[in-house]
Design a protein that fits this description.
heterodimer; A: two-stranded antiparallel ribbon; two-stranded antiparallel ribbon; 6 strands; about 45% helix; B: alpha+beta; 5-stranded mixed sheet; 6 helices
């Protein structure tokens, strides 16, 4: 077990510089000592620890990290330190969220996946912050939204995490899960999230929820009522 | 000015009728207190439920304030879900008591008053928060058409950043940019159709310029609408900024502050 730490501003800069270098040199080794260097990191909380492990499921990754993050939240770590905490966790779990491939080369994606953006509409793309926050708020109902590998950012996350009516509401997330999760395949139902607003699919669901939010108190309505509100176009997924 | 459709029949609770205030508590988590005057044009169902929600992004803390007929302040209004240093916004919802849970009335993006605002009787329309901004000194946080001026919490020298932000050079250099960003966002931004015509910032700018907020539908040339409306907005925004600087004596104050700084350096 390793104690959870957070990057100071200097630590975040070091982390950002290394990511920059990694882009042009994909087999660059992980910077020695960065995770524990007292010049760049601080202990987040005495009782918060994390285990080195390579995760292959984003849901399990979020499920494993959420209790430690909760311990730190309950210890009232100031808002200023949280970006450094998320980035430190991204660095600690880098092999899960940006695994090395053949010849030790890593395929780096958009930097906001590893270094927390302060923009609300990009923040959730961070590969630790996004899944852990969704799991912490929605519990098992987040399974649909954070399925897949820890490195991936699916359209399910893109379409839901940026819409607060969905990502902050357990009833809606539960309705989504009941509507679109295929238990037999342990995956989303086929054809549920195309790139267009096809009737009954995810993007249509998102639009409708925004409309419902102006008429109903969605926080207290519950998933049964949300499913009842959906028009006929959703019946193919309700019954499937 | 802005095209608005309300098919839902819910009523808007005027901002002035939502009276929330921060409770100063230096040791523990942030708290708030307050009340809501629910006297509206159409009387509300006395049994309707009243909720006050604190929110920041997807994080929501809901507090029950009783019913329309029997208002009740929650015993504990501690904002435990928000980390120290983050001040959430608030909304009020009045909800039908039946299983339908229709919204009967609401107010959104309410900022509680700080003790100094209560003391002075003036409400700030640009709340300030200090956060880690990395290499930036300031930044405008935009959320649901509401704005926060963020200042870099790492700046403590020669004074705390919130003190520096009240100094004339900061006001003269930063506020024009802030005003431009806010007004442009409200009038031309992606959420422009959901901006209330009595938004604090539009009222503020209209007072500065002495002219009403540009109206897309009333734009001189509706046919080639977007371009000419954008021009009209730009002109109005520039005028607002110029008036703001004039009222603040920005140039004189800026020059004076630089002179004083030079003198103090010998």
């Amino acid at each position: 077990m390793a104690e959870i730490r957070y990057f100071t501003q200097g630590g975040r800069e070091q982390w950002g510089s290394w990511l920059q270098e990694l882009k042009s040199e994909p087999s660059l080794p992980f910077p020695d000592g960065l995770l524990t260097n007292p010049d760049f990191t601080r202990r987040a909380h005495a009782r918060a620890a994390v285990e080195p492990h390579i995760f292959t499921s984003k849901f399990e990754f979020a499920e494993a990290l959420a209790p430690s993050v909760m311990t730190i939240r309950e210890a009232r770590l100031p808002a200023d330190y949280w970006p450094g905490l998320w980035d430190w966790l991204a660095a600690f779990h880098f092999d899960s969220i940006c695994p090395a491939g053949v010849g030790g080369k890593r395929k780096l994606n958009d930097p906001v996946r590893y270094s927390l953006s302060s923009a609300w509409n990009r923040k959730y793309r961070h590969r630790v912050f996004g899944p852990v926050e969704l799991y912490s708020r929605l519990g098992n109902s987040s399974r649909l939204l954070i399925h897949g590998e820890p490195a991936s950012l699916t359209d399910w996350e893109e379409q839901t995490a940026s819409r607060y009516q969905i990502s902050g509401n357990k009833g809606i997330a539960d309705a989504l899960y009941r509507l679109y999760w295929d238990h037999s395949k342990n995956a989303p139902k086929r054809g549920a999230a195309p790139n267009s607003k096809k009737p009954g699919t995810l993007r249509r669901f998102g639009d409708l929820v925004q409309q419902f939010d102006r008429t109903f108190d969605l926080l207290s309505i519950g998933s049964d009522s949300i499913l009842d509100l959906l028009p006929k176009e959703f019946s193919k997924f309700k019954g499937a | 000015m802005i095209r608005r459709f309300n098919y839902t029949d819910r009523q808007k609770i005027p901002r002035a009728q939502v009276r929330l205030a921060w409770v100063v508590n230096s040791s523990g988590p942030l708290q708030f207190q307050g009340d809501v005057d629910l006297t509206l044009e159409r009387p509300l169902d006395p049994a309707a439920l009243v909720f006050v929600e604190a929110y920041s992004g997807p994080v929501v803390m809901r507090f029950s304030f009783g019913t329309v007929e029997h208002p009740e302040h929650p015993a504990d209004a501690t904002l435990i879900d928000f980390p120290p240093g983050l001040k959430p916004l608030f909304r009020v919802k009045v909800v039908e008591p039946s299983a339908d849970r229709r919204l009967l009335a609401w107010a959104d993006a309410v900022t509680p008053l700080a003790p100094e605002e209560i003391e002075s009787g003036r409400r700030s329309i640009l709340p300030v928060e200090t956060v880690d901004l990395g290499p930036l000194i300031w930044k405008l946080r935009i959320e649901s058409n509401e704005f926060r001026l963020q200042l870099n919490s790492a700046i403590h020298e020669p004074r705390d950043v919130t003190a520096l932000a009240r100094e004339p050079d900061f006001v003269a250099l930063v506020y024009p940019a802030v005003i431009r960003q806010i007004l442009t966002h409200l009038l031309l931004g992606p959420e422009r159709d959901s901006v209330e015509p009595d938004h604090d910032w539009l009222v503020f700018a209209a007072k500065l310029t002495g002219s009403p907020t540009p109206n897309r539908e009333g734009s001189a040339t509706v046919s080639d609408d977007d371009g000419s409306f954008a021009d009209e907005v730009e002109e109005w925004v520039e005028e607002s900024i110029a008036e703001f600087c004039k009222q603040q004596h920005a140039v004189e104050s800026f020059v004076q502050s630089k002179k004083e700084a030079e003198e103090s350096h010998g």
